[in-house]
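We were asked to recover a plausible sequence for a given structure. The inputs and outputs are reproduced exactly as logged, with field labels preserved.

PROBLEM: sequence recovery
POSITIONS: 396
GIVEN STRUCTURE:
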């Protein structure tokens, strides 16, 4: 496979390489409520790395209709671009596949409250099959942030405050979503790398100040576990800066720790618009071009949700601002995961949809019941009068 990938890269123009490092959000390809051939010819002429939210990104889209759209886009990429490289399609699925008609499960904080690892793996396997039904390849879940400040606005998306529980839940989720291998499963994405759950003042996107030991023992631990134990295939950076360095341009996080220390060999994708934020929020880059250079040098392979700053990389190579070999490394990883996922031989066909079956709903109901936390016992749980003392663990 490596030889085949090198052969493709050697044939690519720098513009075609950069296209593999980008994404087009599905609405960019629509006009008047329909898939536009003109927009495909304009935005996909050099190929593309990913297509964002083709099933869940259009309001009211029926899954069956979305499959037709995916088929048309892949057909265009395979037959009408010079190299015929198909795209990865990504969706959200934190508490269920986030598309019309799919099963909704309790939020992550509820899943964590079950303390039931096999149950979480089963839920993720149901999500996997529903996503496969619509020919989606890449899931932007699970969220592996350890929540250390209850004021933070994304607490319910996390598995809680205990790093061991977060890691255990994350490993179970990744195993269920990816299955035995990503060719048969769905590419899982651990996010947000790293320390996102402890922002200054509890405000989302605020700076994070964590010492080295706490960073590794608490906030990196769930990611490390998912990489080493579950074979996590994708990582998403966080929005904030960690001790003054934005995560989107942190080579220490995205390359030195993730790849060199842990041996991660998957892809790193940007959180939506986080590369652009290097110049319009963090102000560490003067423009889109510099933001793109900082991000790819740090280790981000694909810019989501659309190619914006990375669009400038082709010009940066020609101007001598970045070595083309850095682009090639990222392209290699993108093509590698496309081969591993089986995209080049994938056949898209209509299937009967089994979304939200009785069995799936029963699983969601069982999970909801197990997620309930009793705060006050008003006769709900009978306690024997013969019990003389009860140990209460925790803080009042």
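RECOVERED SEQUENCE:
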């Amino acid at each position: 496979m490596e030889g085949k990938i090198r052969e493709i890269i050697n044939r690519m123009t720098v513009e075609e390489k950069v296209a593999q490092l980008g994404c087009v959000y599905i609405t960019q390809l629509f006009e008047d409520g329909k898939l536009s051939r003109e927009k495909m010819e304009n935005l996909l002429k050099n190929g593309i790395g990913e297509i964002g939210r083709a099933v869940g990104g259009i309001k009211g889209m029926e899954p069956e209709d979305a499959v037709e759209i995916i088929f048309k886009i892949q057909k265009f990429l395979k037959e009408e671009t010079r190299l015929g490289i198909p795209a990865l399609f990504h969706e959200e699925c934190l508490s269920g596949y986030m598309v019309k008609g799919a099963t909704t499960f309790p939020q992550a904080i509820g899943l964590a409250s079950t303390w039931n690892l096999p149950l979480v793996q089963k839920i993720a396997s149901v999500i996997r099959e529903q996503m496969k039904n619509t020919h989606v390849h890449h899931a932007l879940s699970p969220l592996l942030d350890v929540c250390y400040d209850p004021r933070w606005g994304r607490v319910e998306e996390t598995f809680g405050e205990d790093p061991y529980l977060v890691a255990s839940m994350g490993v179970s989720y990744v195993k269920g979503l990816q299955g035995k291998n990503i060719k048969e499963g769905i590419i899982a994405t651990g996010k947000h790398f790293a320390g996102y759950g402890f922002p200054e003042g509890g405000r989302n996107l605020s700076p994070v100040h964590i010492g080295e030991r706490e960073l590794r023992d608490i906030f990196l631990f769930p990611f490390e576990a998912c990489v080493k134990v579950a074979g996590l295939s994708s990582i998403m950076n966080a929005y904030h800066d960690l001790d003054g360095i934005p995560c989107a341009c942190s080579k220490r996080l995205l390359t030195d720790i993730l790849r060199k220390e842990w041996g991660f060999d998957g892809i790193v994708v940007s959180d939506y618009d986080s590369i652009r934020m290097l110049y319009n929020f963090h102000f560490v880059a003067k423009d889109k071009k510099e933001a793109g250079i900082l991000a790819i040098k740090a280790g981000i392979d694909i810019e989501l949700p659309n190619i914006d700053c990375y669009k400038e990389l082709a010009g940066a190579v020609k101007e001598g601002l970045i070595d083309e070999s850095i682009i090639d490394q990222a392209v290699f990883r993108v093509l590698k995961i496309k081969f591993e996922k089986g995209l080049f031989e994938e056949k898209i066909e209509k299937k009967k949809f089994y979304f939200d079956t009785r069995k799936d709903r029963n699983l969601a109901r069982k999970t909801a019941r197990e997620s309930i936390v009793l705060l006050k016992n008003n006769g709900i749980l009978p306690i024997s009068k013969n019990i003389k003392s009860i140990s209460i663990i925790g803080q009042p």
